Structures are given as C-alpha cells and as structure tokens.
Amino acid sequence: METIINKVANSGIITINLEDYYDKNERVVFDIKDCLYMGLILKEKDFREFVKNNDWTVYKNKNVAIVCTADAIVPTWAFMLVGSKLSGIANYFVFGNTEQLENSLFQMALSNIDVEQYRNHKIVVKGCGNLPVPVFAYVEILKILQPVASSVMYGEPCSTVPVFKKLNVEKNKP
Fold this sequence. Notes:
By secondary structure, the chain is α/β, with parallel strands linked by helices. It folds into two domains: about 1-25 and about 115-174, no CATH class; about 25-90, no CATH class. The protein has four helices and seven strands. It has helices at about 45-55, 75-85, 100-110, 135-145; strands spanning about 15, 25-30, 65, 90-95, 120-125, 150-155, 160-165. The strands form two sheets. Strands 1-5-6-7 form a four-stranded mixed sheet, with helices on one face. Strand 3 (about 65), helix 2 and strand 4 (about 90-95) form a beta-alpha-beta unit. Helix 1 (about 45-55) packs parallel to helix 2 and helix 3 packs parallel to helix 4.
C-alpha cells in the first residue's frame, strides 16, 4: 500500500490569515453634517452644547469613523472635540471614512506582529475568506514581511501566486 505524503504540510510554508487580525467590533460613522446649521455652518455654541449633552455611550466598544460629508468648512477642533468624547468609550476612532477606519484598524493590528517568527520562512498570505479584508492589509503585510521572509505568496498553500522571493546572493556570485 502506497503512503500518502502531505507535501504542503512538509514544505515549511507558514500561512497567515489576515482575518485573524480583523477587529470584530461594530463599525459606525459619526457625521458632523448632522450638527451643521442649515447644513452649511458649524455654530460653536450650538455644537458645544450638542457635544456636552449627546449620549456618547451609544458608541461603546464600537469603531468610529468621524467625518463631515457636507460640503462645509468645519474647523479642526470640532473633530477633535468629538474624538475627546469618544475616547475611553469607543473601541477605536479615526478621522476619515469607513475605508480609512478599516485600513487604520488593520495597520494597528499588523504593527504588533513579531516579524522575527517569519525570518527566512516561506509565507503564504491567505487570499479567500469570509470577512472583508481590504487590499490595504495585503499590501501592509507584504511591507512588514518582505524584509525578513525568504518568500511571500498569495492564495492557499496548495495553489499560490508568488509575490516576492528573496534572491540568494550565493547563487548569483560569478
């Protein structure tokens, strides 16, 4: 009887699933446009009153994108004031849209990776999944791994697309 050998398991390839770095807290948007007078002007006194009396606990443990989608000039301090109220309540917040929020969440999570565990290893960054992993995260993980990994591939260990392979300096010597 012939023995079946799992070549993928014996290859030494390490798979990274970016879904493991996905923050599962709810994402919401706080849009300052809802606080503008006639949809155009931010009145400082009214805005400060709103910020003071608003129930900020609705953002508890949520990831918040702070934006103004109206075509209005909003002073920087207004976004800062909202952030000051979300601090300690929201899980995370950024100035920007939901795409920028998602990218920032991944950048924060991926920045905590101990790259030394991947030194001189072949890495496959898993490509398919159930969670919405942005392209940003794939580029960011490449940027993190490229200085240490011997190769980085995309896909599944049984079917990969090569993205990066470190040149073997010894082989290229005359």
